[in-house]
Amino acid sequence: CTMQLSNSSSTEVSEFLLNCFVRSPSLQRWLSLPLSLLFLLAMGANATLLITIWLEASLHEPMYYLLSMLSLLDIVLCLTVIPKVLFIFWFDLRTISFSACFLQMYIMNCFLSMESSSFLIMAYDRYVAICHPLRYPSIITDQFVAKAAIFILARNALVTGPIPILSARLHYCQYNVIENCICANLSVSKLSCDNVTLNRLYQFIAGWTMLGSDLILIFLSYVFILRAVLQLKTKGAAAKALSTCGSHFILILFFSTILLVFVLTHVVRKRVSPNVPILLNVLHHVIPAALNPIVYGVRTQEIKQGILKLMRKGM
């Protein structure tokens, strides 16, 4: 279903078409409802969490500021990807402008890596809380959260910036149909008439440098946490300590697992349907966003109490 713009190699592309499961209209219909529900759940749950933390004075603490940052990232990621996918499913609005495509590419790469970095800072927060509880108030402060937020923003904005720039500088002179639901770097750059080795190499190095280092440091944090927990001799202390970081670990595990499955499907793409990595790419922008606030809301007593208090005030 690839559309050739012109027989002339000098013709430049001004817009792209997202070929989002167009060969499987039944799959589009089947996906539209659960994807819509997941999107509404993600937006509603994250908005509720943000409003609760903002209005409830007892939640104005560093740990909840970190959680607010994660919710903001999830909202932006959902708004960047899911509405466009749903418009394709419902109205066949597959066209996306050149600039909008590369803006979407930048936001996806930047904010996904920022989410990974946020999980790293939250893992460090749990490490200090469990392994150095007496020093926690002096280490995890509002200033620490502010510095961490600046670090996350600067690091990921700078490292992921070249990804859309490298893709945008290529010449797109033959085809404009992206075999994907989103403007993923490799899906777009392979349409170019130029050599895309540099694009692939930079994406690989940047991705594994940032996400890989984050996951290694998160893993080490939980190794130290587990070792400290096993040394606790007070009755019930180990269970309580594990409970405080259990929700965080569940979300990190899910984030890492779905990312690993996505990578593996790309590696063995000749053995699986081409729709599988595309579907996983879309779901990776909405399922973690829907789960994050729910898991924290269910497992964190202070957040549940804050939501109930706001609901009582509203009534």
Automatic annotation (TrEMBL):
GO molecular function: G protein-coupled receptor activity; olfactory receptor activity
Keyword set, alphabetical order: G-protein coupled receptor, Membrane, Olfaction, Receptor, Sensory transduction, Transducer, Transmembrane, Transmembrane helix
InterPro entries listed in its UniProt record: GPCR_Rhodpsn (IPR000276), GPCR_Rhodpsn_7TM (IPR017452), Olfact_rcpt (IPR000725), OR51/52/56-like (IPR050402)
Membrane-topology descriptor: Multi-pass membrane protein
Gene Ontology process terms (BP): cellular response to lipid
Transmembrane segments: 33-55, 67-91, 144-166, 205-229, 241-264, 276-298
Pfam families: 7tm_4 (PF13853)
Domain G-protein coupled receptors family 1 profile as annotated: residue spans: 45-296
Any single GO CC term annotated in Swiss-Prot or TrEMBL for this entry: plasma membrane
PANTHER family: OLFACTORY RECEPTOR 56A3, OLFACTORY RECEPTOR 56B1-RELATED
Full protein name: Olfactory receptor 56A3-like
Organism: Monodelphis domestica (Gray short-tailed opossum)
Upper taxonomic lineage: Eukaryota, Metazoa, Chordata, Craniata, Vertebrata
